[in-house]
Amino acid sequence: MADRADVEEVIYRAAFVTIRFGEAASIPQSENDISWCLDPLAPLEPDERTRLGDAIIALIEDPTAHRADFIATLTALVD
To answer: What dihedral angle (degrees, nearest 10) is formed by the CA atoms of 49, 51, 52, 53?
Structure first.
């Protein structure tokens, strides 16, 4: 489980990346962005980080379609 402040930081960072790029950038840039977005949740298991990373990519590609699911997934992690 995660601290609410950490989850909110991930949401903020994902929103920032989405606004900054508007769509997925190059693969290396996307990997850096995902890593930066998920830094506040460092103790997550690798498969959970992968799942959330995929959700961030989907959010970047279409924020309107994926925003609610992304936020719900993250808030479910709160202690």
So the answer is: 80
User: How remote is the C-alpha of 34 from its chain's centroid?
Assistant: 6
> Please, which residues have CB within 8 angstroms of residue 11's CB and are 6 or more apart in sequence?
70, 71, 74
For the record, the structure tokens of 47 come out as 């498969």
What pTM does this model have? 0.86
- For 41-75, write each residue's pLDDT tens digit: 988 899 999 999 999 989 888 889 999 999 999 99
The C-alpha angle with vertex 58 and arms to 36 and 38, in degrees rounded to 5, equals 20
Cα–chain-centroid distance for residue 20?
14
Residue with tokens 């960072």: 13
- Rounded Cα gap, residues 63 and 38, in angstroms: 17
Amino acid at 69: D
